[in-house]
Amino acid sequence: MADRVAGSRRGLNAGVQAVAAVVLVAGVTGGIWGLSGALPNNNGTGDPVRCSDRVGTPPPKRVSGEQLCQALNRADLPALLGTPDERARTADGHDSWITLDGGTKIASPEANVTLQTYSVKLSASDDRLSVSQGLDLLPKAEPRQILGHPAVLYSDRTIALTFGSGKAESGPGGIARSLLVAKDPKDGGGSFEIAIWRQDDVVPDDAALFRVAELVLPTVPGWKTG
Description:
By secondary structure, this protein is mainly β. It has one domain (about 5-220). The protein is about 10% helix and about 35% strand.
C-alpha cells in the first residue's frame, strides 16, 4: 500500500528545508521548502518526542528554529488541536535565510510538529513588512487579532505526495489554515506564522489554530506585549 503525506506550502515568509529528501513547491514569495515529519523521531518508544537536532546556522540575536520547536512542541499541543489522545510523532526546527534583491538576507527559522491527525508549523520573519500588508498579498486573507496583535487569517493548498512502486507522485492536497501575527502590537515589522493542516485533507479547525496561537506565541523569544 502506498503511503501518502502532505505538507503545507510556504506562505508569506519563504524559507528552505529538506527532510526525507522531499522538497515541495514555492509559496507567495517564491521560496521552496521541504516536507517535515515523514518519519517519526521518537525511536519507536512511548516517550514524548523531542525536538530533533537543529538544521542550519542559527541567526545571531534572532529566534532560532530550535527555540521555535521548543515553544511549539508542548505537552498540551494535542489537546489544543482537539486530539487529546494523540501525541507528537515528529518535532524539528530549521534555520535558513532568504536573500532579497540587492543581497539583503533575512532570517527565516521554522519548526514543525506532526501528529497522527494534524501537522503544525511555526515560523518567524524579521522583514520590514507589516502584517496588515498581508491582506493585499495573501489570497482571501481576513484581518484578525491575537492577544492584541494584528493578525491575518488565510488558507493555502497543501501538496500531497504518494509513495509506492518505487516512485513518488505529487498532486493537490488538502487545505492549510494559517495565521500571520505581528511580533508587536504596533505592527512595526516582523511576524510569526502558525499553520495547521490535517493528514486526511479535511479542512482544519480554526478554533484549534487560534488556541495554539494564543498559548504558543507568548512563549516565543521576540514576542512583545507592548
